[in-house]
Protein 1
Amino acid sequence: MPTKSTTAFRLISGISAATLATSVAMPALSQEDWPSDPVSIIVSFPPGGASDLVARLLAAELGEALDAQFVVENRPGAGGTVAATALMEAAPDGHTLMLSNLTPFDVAPTLFPDTPYDPIEDFTHVSYIGGVYLGLFAAPSLEVETFEGLMELVRANPGSVDYGTSGVGSWGHIVSETFKSLTGTDMVHIPYQGSGPMRQDLRADVVDLTFDAVPQNLPLVEEGVAVPLVVMAPERLETLPDTPTMVEAGHDLVAENWLGISAPAGLDPAIAETLDETLADVMAEPEVSAQFDEWGIVRREMTGEEFSAYVAEQFDVWAERIAASGAQ
Amino acid sequence: MGLIENLLIGFETAASAQNLAYCFVGVFLGTFIGVLPGVGPLAAVAMLLPVSFYLPPETALVMLAGVYYGAEYGGSIAAILLNIPGTPSASVSCIDGYPMARAGRAGVALTLTAVASLFGGLFGVVVIVALAPRLAEFALLFGPWEYFAVMVLGLIAASIVSSSGALRGVMMVCLGILLGTVGLDITSGVVRYSGGTQELRDGVGLVVVAMGVFGIAEVMASARTNRPSYAGENVGLRKLLPGRADWGRFTGPAVRGSLVGSFVGTLPGTGQTVASFLGYALEKRVSRRPEDFGTGVVEGLVVPESANNAAAQTAFIPTLTLGIPGSTTMALMLGALMVHGIDPGPRMLSQHPELFWGLVVSFVFGNLFLLILNIPLIGLWVRVLRVPHHFLYPAVVLLICVGVYSIANSMFDVWLALAFGFLGYILRLWRYEPAPMLIGFVLGPMMEEYFRRAMLLSRGDATSFLERPGSATLLVAALALLLWSAVPRGTWSRLLTRGFAPKR
């Protein structure tokens, strides 16, 4: 596979160059100088996860396209708010960016009222990258093949079926509460610490259902240890073409964990434009786009302004869900 | 496919010149990184991850895995020589390893450590080879009920670890459990004891606590006592070799430690720290001289070393066969595979046999490399003791700070580690041992999580713990251990040999 090894090579060359660089912060004079110094991309997760891999790939590709060093900086903790706080406090000179996602911007500020930033006012949301959708998966032992089958079972036996989410206040948990109130069902919530242990329990038939991101469950579906019942996407997913959406089932429930690039408030619009255009070029490269497909990240076109508006709109959507769920 | 065939495939992969070379690079780097206090395998694997993208997947995995288990060898070196564990799991090796070094037997202790590590590592490999396909299913038999029972067993064992009396041990375990409650409660989502800070919302990190109460506290204590260095100690070859009496005490503890380590390693999330503590505690119970533990007995060093290295190998089973990483370091290794488009999981054994078996066979090479690498280096390590403390200890503090910072790029963690250093120093002045605290800190929150999850799943019915055969067996074992340690020594054997006849 020549394409893959090229990607890998770019990844290594970009990252190793970046590792050698020291980050000396100097204010950028104008957008023509940008990037004049190494650019760090803050990731709100520890190394090794899906987001971290996305950031490392983009860092290598952006670094090559802009002839600069892009460094990934992992700042995990407190639902991503540690990372977002660090981004807010950084200088808006284009040398500190963040691989932004749903939780720190559209969920945590409502969930934790003491979050020290405003998710819209304190940031420049530069580019939308893509997103993953939430799905509902059943253990085969539950002997339910479809969404309707589940509804029948749950309505006949209220409180007997349990479901896992990746934690209290996680997007899966919030959506599960909305799901229960929309469908008028009663199921028992089992919170986990992250989705890894939850998938282990689904595999081991300990828990009946999981609300979990779709891509990580595809291997389990293929193996026959997880049955996809419904996805919370606007339309059917290419990776699960036979699984209906909640919209089809008559409920307006879409849950996307979006990924984007954000910067501190007050970023020079010219820098934002350069960054957005470069990112679009990078994402259009066949090997990069193939890698995103493999990771199950669904992409669509969005301008910088549309992305900014999307973050704000989603904030309201999730605030309403959180208020109704009682997770606050 | 037969076992022999699998092993041949593995041998073919692992014995290629490239893979052998990267295996050596991995274990070599791992040893050195393990020696440095605070800088653990996580930092090393994270740094090497980008390099691994450039390598074929099996070579990448062989190298990263080498760093991982190589660090277990190195971690105990600083524990023995300086009473500062290089990795949290080496904390147990301080208990008997450091007294050995103080008695002038540093070389012997390091040799025994290297051999015990090799023994444990190879034992873990044998367990993988014999049971790998079925061990994955075994891990799936463990629901929250069984995990809870293992944690109970571990906590009871932990309070026995203390050599300064059971009461002090239990107190320290409880303090550890309390520290473990800091942060977001998994079941209710309530933030506990964070003082309203964002940094404490996820609780306190294991490395932060371990490096504080063991590392920083040791530096502070040595500054106060200004103890003489070991200058002038003869480090000739004869001093390195354990005597016949030492070897006589080697085999039994090594086998028991390896058994405990292999078992604990297969449970995702428990890892080497639990393995070494549990092994030590159990050994202390079966020993004929438990009162000598903590004074520098061979068993007290051999058991945790064989246990943590066995666990380091078997920890790959859940990671590769279930795709569930037991630790952040393991998650990084999964990341290395995912970049190459390989999904770890039950199908990996059939789809990529050369990868799985190649890795397993590379463990054998890696462990042998480690022994070859470590024995000649022992003389060098012992010389570290001759470095004047006013040079050595500032360097140690610096390394700890760098290591703690690198975990989450957080300055707050560095200050926290220093605060734990003060706590550890005060505890030491009052003769409270930090080891049981560390195990309470690790196991307490896990025990709570599994207990509450089990109760949720069984809708509040506590008898479910006794209805499931796995958890019932483990809980009975825990009760037996508790009774065994509560009743004075000799009572049981007296009862067995003489019945209830009154003493003459």
Note: Residues 1-29 of chain A have pLDDT under 50 and may be disordered.
Protein 2
Amino acid sequence: MSPVARRINKTTQMSITSLIDILTILLLFVMVNVSSDPDMLPEGMELQESMMDDEFPENSKIISLNVSYTGLDTGVITYQSEKSTEQIPIARLEEINNTSREVLAAKTEALDVTLHSILGNNIGDTPVVVKVKAHRNTPFKYINTIKTMLIDIWNNENSAVSVQSQSKEFKLYFATDFKKAETDAYQALLKSYGLPRGL
Amino acid sequence: MRINPAVGKKSKTYKPSQGRNAQKNAGHQEVDLVPIMNLFVTLIPMLLSMVVLVSIAYLSLDLSNPNAPGAGEASTAKKTEKKAPQITKLELIINKDDTGEIFIFNKNGEIDPDQPEILVSNFHELYTALSKYKKIMLEDKSNNSESSENADESLSIIILPKEYVRFGVFVKTMDLCKKMNFSDIMISEI
């Protein structure tokens, strides 16, 4: 074998040790950060950034509602199961937009039946938490309609939820894209709010 | 290979032609990394697809109705007022026009003439305005209560968004109010 040929043979074998090192570090990093939390966002939903994180009451029954807004007063309210990421439609936004009192009452009744099936029987005085995830561009009126529908259900003594629940109050929480303190995103948010640094 | 009778060990003799084969045999000791590479190449995209990039938090909302009969009125009658409060009810109206959202302050049921409208693009000005009102409300609290220790706990504000105000702007406003220690944040309709 000539000296030139020997040199070529030496360089043909690629060393993948460094690649393995990188992949190992990546694998560990991803495994540490991976979340099995089913609390996922529907595809394409952008939440508003926030600095606050409120905790739910302990032992509360949690219901997740999603408001997917597709623009021009169209969209859908869905219920998200806690056990899976499946979205069950409750009402379309165009159906509750500027609708008559009777139609809204019918939708409220349908929501009551859905909530009852989610909460189950004999929930007693367990606090009920309704989590609402909505796209940041959703008009406020739809959020307000959901709020009104929920209040109507809880205030109506004959509603399926009220019959089973001794608790007359529920808490409404809105999902946000949480920025942790001491991160660049938090500082940017602080600046946009006009809040002094270090708050 | 010969055995040296004087030493009792095998002694190597010079065999230059054997060196060629020795190098070939030693080369197979390297660990085969291909299976673990295959595993990594499968695992990493799978985990990357599962990773949560947005950490979701939740903001609570007080659903108590500020227009309910007697709400907030009963306690004020019992007190012997030392000085009339400058702000009895603070409302923050979020209006929307073609340019975007506008913030307007309602003081004691009327639009505050001293406070100009704030555009959503100048959101940082909302902090300055809220700070001003908070200061006045704290002064009112300290004038009308024996101890001003708990004064900060009962600062209330009513947010009144118009129907087409973007939900994100509403949440941002609520977030700022919470960060500024307004404890009773209520929403209502215009």
Note: Confidence is low (pLDDT under 50) at residues 68-79 of chain B.
